[in-house]
Amino acid sequence: MCKNCNGFTLVEAVFALALLLVITTVLLPLFAQIMMERQNIALKAKAQQILDAALYEENIHKEMTVVDGRTTFVIHSDYEENDMWKVCVRWTDYANRSAERCGYVKR
User: Fold this and answer.
1) Could you list the residue range(s) of the whole structural domain that residue 26 is in?
2) Average pLDDT over residues 73-97
């Protein structure tokens, strides 16, 4: 055998590829979950924008629907005691979880 060989052996190459495969298999679902949560944060920001717009709109119906891409936002408004107006926005995020944001304004 050659004493000054500087190359990889077949066992070393197979071990390196197996290690790379294990790391990729572990990290790929984690990256997919991170991307889905980033999209859910964007949906939450969009819902807050819709809620802010609905709070300052004078003539809003009791229930409205806003469709933005693949997501449907449902806006509910209701008067409560002391002339407080409650507006809630409901939607289903990309993980199929139901979410809601509410806001109050005095009229």
Assistant:
1) 10-106
2) 90
